[in-house]
Structures are given as C-alpha cells and as structure tokens.
Task: structure prediction
Amino acid sequence: MGDSTKTRKYLLQEKDIPAAWYNILPDLPAPFPPYISPATMKPITPDELAVIFPMELIMQEFSPNTWVDIPGEIIDIYKLWRPSPLFRAHNLEKALDTPAHIYYKYEGVSPAGSHKPNTAIAQAYYNKKAGINKISTETGAGQWGSALALAGALLDVDIEVFMVRVSYDQKPYRKFMINTWGAKVHASPSNLTDVGRKILAENPDSPGSLGIAISEAVEVAAKNPDTNYSLGSVLNHVCMHQTIIGLEAQKQMEMAGEYPDVVIGCHGGGSNFAGLALPYVRDKIKGGKSRLKILAAEPSACPTLTKGKYTYDFGDTGEMAPITMMYTLGHKFIPTGIHAGGLRYHGASPLISLLLVNKIIEAAAFDQKPCFDSAVLFARTEGILPAPESAHAIQAAVAEALDAKEKGEKRVILFNLSGHGHFDLAAYDAYNSGLIKDVALPQSSIDKGLESLPDVK
Result:
C-alpha cells in the first residue's frame, strides 16, 4: 500500500512568484571580463550592442544591481505556468534503494515544455517596448525556438528561427509547434544568409551547429533595422531571467524542511543550469554554505566545461557575435549529432565559466547511453518523460544518490528537470531499439576547433 502521508510536490501560489530576478554580477568572486567587439577587437560599447539588442536588455547585461524588478506585464504572462512545481522523487529513491532525498524542479509545465519561456517572454517584452516588431534567433533542439515563437504570439512580435539542421530533421514536431505559434523556421545552414551560403558551398551536407545558426540569425538582425536578435542562453541577462527557477525552488525547499547538499543542472550554453544554480551560488558565496556542491552536467560528446579552454572566443561560427571570455571548444567546432541537441554548443556562459574557473561550481561530462538509461528509469518511476538534455541532470543526480548509498550517507539532492521529452520520441524509439550509442569525441576534434581562436590581448 502507498503512504498517503508522503508529500510528493510542493506548490507555491501565484502571489509567491518572485518580484525580481537575481543578478549575480555584483556578487561574483572575480571581476567580470569585458566583452570584445569582433569589429574593433576592443571592449564592446553599448552602441555596438544596440544594433541587435534593445537598450533595456543591454543595461541588464551589465547591471550593477543585485535585484532587477520583473515588470507586472511579464509576471502576468508567467502566471500561465508559474510557479512551477517542486517534486520529491520518492519512487526514484526507492528504485535506487538510496538514503538520499532527491528533489526536482519541473520546468516542463510551461506551454513550450521547457524553462526557455522564462527569458523568451522577457526578451520579447523589452523588444516590443523598444518598438521592435521582429526578432531573429537560433535554436538547437527547438526548445528555444518554440519558446520565442510562443512569446511572439503572446506579445505580437514576428519571429524568425534558424534551427540546427540535424535537429530540424530529427525533431519535426518542434517545427510544427513553432509554425503553429506563427513563427518561421529554417534549417541551418540555409541559403538565406551570406554565412549560410558560404558554409553550404564548403560542405553541402553540413549538419549545422548552434554557432552557425547564431551567425545566420545575427546577420539577419544586423542587416535589417526593423529586426533585433535574441539569444536563448549564455548571456548575462538570459541567465538572470532564469533565476526565477532557483528563487522559487528555495521557497519550496523551505516548505520541504530541507536544504540541498547538491544542486544539479544540465549544461549546454548555461541558462537552465544558471536558473536553478545562481541563487544557490549566492548562498555559497555570501550565505555561509561553503560546502554546497553545485554541479553542471554536460554531454561527453560536447564537453565544453570539462575539456574546453578558458579563453576569449567568438560566440558564433561566422565571427559576428561578441567575443567573450568563456570555456570553449572553439567556434569552428562542429559537434556530433547526439540527441541532446540543446547541449551541443561550443562555448559556455561567461558567468558560469567564471564561477567554474574560480572553483565555486563543478562540472562533469556524461555519455549518451547512461543518460538515456537514467531518463527511462526516471520515466518508469516518476512518470515524466524527460528531454534528452535534462537526462544529463538526472544521470548526475542518480550518480550522487548511488554514491550516497555506497557511503551510507543521507544526502539532499536538487536538480532542474528543465523540460519534457514529448517531442523527442524518435530518440526514445532509438533507445528502445538499442540504437543509442555513446559517442567518443577524439581529441583531434577539440584541437581543430581551438585552432581558430581570436587573438585578444
């Protein structure tokens, strides 16, 4: 018989939605390295960024304020799915026979099925407020493209999406969702931009990459005065918008009467990891939680944080985006077409990179097959089919729980279940058919990617 006294989920009310985002910039353990202009190779100016971003987002990118108020219009839209639930994974704990307590913050309840609308709504709002009626963007697996298409529909902004070709082919239902919300979506590299045509001329069968798709979207924005560019991860203001996840989670963990020993998020560019982790990083830096382990879980096929180089690099393949100080595999790096398309980015958030190099957080890389093993175990115990990206966080949490079992320790584990896998059924079909394989990344691929780093003094 089940235990009716167990609490499985911790729910906040709409009035509990945080009124401000947390900006970690004033609390960083080291100075934040300046962005470099690809045109001048000098620190970038607000005027240069204003070609593709609205001024309010530029101000947020470098804000000296710890808290940035969330406009009421954004909170009103957030209420469509926020606050999101926090679950205690009792069934998974039982299956693992672990003394650990496992909690997960579930962002798959958003209309787009992931955490991405937290910043998509904000970015569309600030662009609309600035008089911009069209936004171009990239998307890897389609979660970000879906989220911005949703934001465009709700705020009456036209959206054009360049989707990495391998995901464009693997995940047709993401395309259908983007189109249904009224946005346009193209396979990248495409024949619609100079950079796309150049890459296709060199390699007509290019699988694409986030770096290429970013270049195409930035080119469209830079060439059209009525169009701005929007990025779904990496940048400071994007990470800040996502902190609503961790701020809610902190309230919910108080409801549960526990504080995490380990905080985990999957990592591609850094946005969902930052969303859960940064409020806890603040606790670690300023709140006396020095023993708190904060772990970024990435794919071993694109090991930016664990095998990349901490240096200045372009954010895109076409060398048009700002040059930032980050962990990178090189902007020419072309990742393998693993199913976790949202984690196949050559670089990492400069914020997350700075925290890693200063040993405030940790990173670990996981192979594709064990991540799917853990995702399927999670689906069969907790009932939710996870996104392949989120499966990396689950795998890290399972590893922590089994380590706690081996050591006979009680351990409180909190991870971000950043999205559901309802549009990733082809990946699960491949898993069920025994076709999911681990992808060995040769060092030569990393070395080749790092050959083209910019010379920043």
